[in-house]
Amino acid sequence: MSPSNEARLRIDKWLWAARFFKTRALATDAVNGGHVHLNGQRIKASHQVKVGDRLEITKGPVQFALVIEGLHDKRGPAPAAQQLYCESEASKQARVAVADQQRAERISRPDYGSARPTKRDRRAMDRLKG
User: Fold this and answer.
1) Sheet holding 54-59: strands in order across?
2) In degrees, to the nearest 5, what angle opens at C-alpha 72 toward C-alphas 66 and 75?
3) Which family does it belong to (predicted)?
4) Residue 32: which residues within 8 A CB-CB, separation 6 or more?
5) Domains along the chain?
6) What distance in Å separates the CA atoms of residue 87 and residue 68, rounded to the nearest whole number?
């Protein structure tokens, strides 16, 4: 599709082509579930987007705030997909902060090995929890 201002594309197709979701079905579920907002409004998966629209996408604890800069209905390589949008600096900083927090939580969590806890380990965990 051409990146002209008159061109429009379904939001679920765009999310899939921009590599925010692995399949169109996942993109459709996210849009219908209220995890994607267009210009501050909740939308349906069949809604048409155009260049210049603002999107807020929530994937778990991570939120993306971006502006659509291009439309494409085919899924391509990641560098080409990154050309389809421009993410705000605040969004990038928030994502880095969430990643740092998750990393700190993972490091502070005790490692009980890859196997199931033994009876002794379970009792120790119960004592810690109170």
Assistant:
1) 41-42, 36-38, 54-59, 62-68, 85-87
2) 95
3) Belongs to the HSP15 family.
4) 44, 45
5) 1-90 (3.10.290.10)
6) 9
Q: Flag whether pLDDT at 1 surpasses 70.
A: no
- Based on DSSP, count helices (H) and strands (E) in the chain, helices before strands: 5, 7
**pLDDT tens-digit readout, 5-39:** 478 999 999 999 999 999 999 999 999 999 999 99
Task: Provide the 10 A C-beta neighbour count for residue 14.
Answer: 25
- Cβ atoms within 10 Å, residue 40: 7
Question: How far is 43 from 25, CA to CA, in rounded Å?
Answer: 16
Identify the pLDDT of residue 2.
46
Q: Which two tokens stand for residue 105?
A: 């939580």
- Phi, psi (degrees; rounded to nearest 5) at 51: -65, 135
Query: How high is the pLDDT of residue 108?
Result: 77
